[in-house]
Design brief:
By secondary structure, the protein is α/β, with parallel strands linked by helices. The protein contains 7 helices and 8 strands. Helix 2 packs parallel to helix 5. It is globular, with a radius of gyration of 16 Å. The two termini are 25 Å apart.
């Protein structure tokens, strides 16, 4: 901390999550194979906190050019999803617009290898400022979204806008969103089995880091 960044070093990786339990899972995973500096940022819950925390961190010189992954838990919207399933966003949707994600297919392949036996779902990840249940879940599913959380859309939108002079296009900064389902249509949090589902999701989240590093390594391309 406090050191000037090495201009020869690859851009770092910032992994943003909301909750302490998510940060614990991500920090306790296997850090071997990281191609550059990596940090797990706890933003706090909700889109406003995510925006502030990500903007503040990316405003620091060391993290200015970082690739960004929004991660943690989510609510699945599609029937047949189970706690412990993985969601890889091809885009995130929020009130400020849609943010396309980078290297989605590569990330899916890396996750299948890192967490064998777990279902990986790909599609739009939508944002909310509150916990979604019941009829609202069905309404979001009708828009084409496959999962919902409170921070990913705000995190990626902020990350794309924070790279000075690069704009918000798909090549501005590598960004991705990977979430683990802890709550699904047939497995809502209020039901018995929540604890078991939460433990399953925690274990999956601990295992994703090698896939994140593979994604990061593959996208280390020069950016203006």
């Amino acid at each position: 901390m406090g050191r000037e960044p090495d201009p020869a070093a690859p851009p770092p990786l910032l992994i943003a999550c909301a909750l302490g339990i998510e940060q614990l899972a991500l920090r306790s995973g296997d850090r071997g194979g990281a191609p550059g500096a990596v940090t797990v940022l706890r933003t706090g819950m909700g889109p406003d906190r995510a925006r502030r925390a990500v903007a503040r961190t990316l405003g620091e010189e060391r993290w200015r050019d970082a690739a960004v992954i929004a991660s943690g838990f989510c609510a699945g919207l599609a029937p047949g999803m189970h706690p412990g399933d993985l969601v890889v966003a091809d885009e995130t949707r929020g009130p400020d617009g849609t943010t396309p994600c980078s290297g989605t297919e590569l990330l899916v392949k890396a996750l299948v290898k890192a967490v064998p036996g777990r279902a990986v779902h790909t599609g739009p990840l939508t944002g909310s400022d509150h916990v979604v249940r019941g009829p609202e879940r069905a309404a979001l599913r009708a828009t084409g979204a496959i999962a919902v959380d409170m921070e990913s859309a705000a995190t990626l939108r902020t990350a794309r806008g924070a790279l000075s002079g690069a704009g918000t296009g798909p090549d501005a900064r590598p960004v991705a969103a990977v979430r683990v389902v802890v709550d699904a249509p047939e497995h809502e949090l209020v039901r018995i089995g929540t604890v078991r589902g939460g433990i399953s999701a925690f274990r999956v989240l601990r295992a994703v880091l090698p896939a994140f590093f593979e994604w990061h390594r593959s996208l280390l391309l020069p950016r203006r």
